[in-house]
Amino acid sequence: MPELLASKDFAAHLNTTFKVETPVALELTLAEVTDRSNAQLEQFSVLFTGPASPWVRQGTYTLLHPEMRELDLFLVPLGPRDGRMVYEAVFARLIPPSA
């Protein structure tokens, strides 16, 4: 995987499973990728869904995926939706001006 992940990297893996092994074993499904980038700022978010219980608190977790390998993401639980817990990871970085 590239050092800096982009929304397209995640979009290629929608509806696939990412595993969290600690502090509890969870399987999260990549449910949504939303790109809100503009000319100056690359910004996007990804939503994962997992079991309603157990769930993990806000924090950085290592997610394992067969193709994306290991990803350390800061996940924020947004709350339950349709019987599943929803987690969000947000990415934002400035786009350097063209020379």
Question: Overview of this structure, please?
Answer:
- With 99 residues, the protein is mainly beta.
- It has one domain (7-94).
- The chain has one helix and six strands.
- The longest helix has 5 residues, at 7-11.
Furnish the topology, listing elements before pairings:
Blueprint: H1 7-11, E1 17-20, E2 26-35, E3 41-51, E4 59-65, E5 69-81, E6 84-94
Antiparallel strand pairs: 1-2, 1-4, 2-3, 3-6, 4-5, 5-6
How helix-rich are the residues, as a percent range?
under 10%
Shape: globular
Give the overall average pLDDT: 93
User: How many DSSP helices?
Assistant: 1
**Regions with little confidence, pLDDT below 50 for 5+ residues:** none
Kindly estimate the percentage of residues that lie in beta strands according to DSSP. Answer: over 45%
Total count of strands: 6
- Helix/strand structural class: mainly beta
Can you list the strand order of the major beta sheet? 1-2-3-6-5-4
Provide the number of structural domains. 1
Q: What's the Cα radius of gyration?
A: 14 Å
In whole angstroms, the N-to-C terminal distance is 27 Å
- What's the helix-strand series? HEEEEEE
Largest sheet: 6 strands, antiparallel, barrel
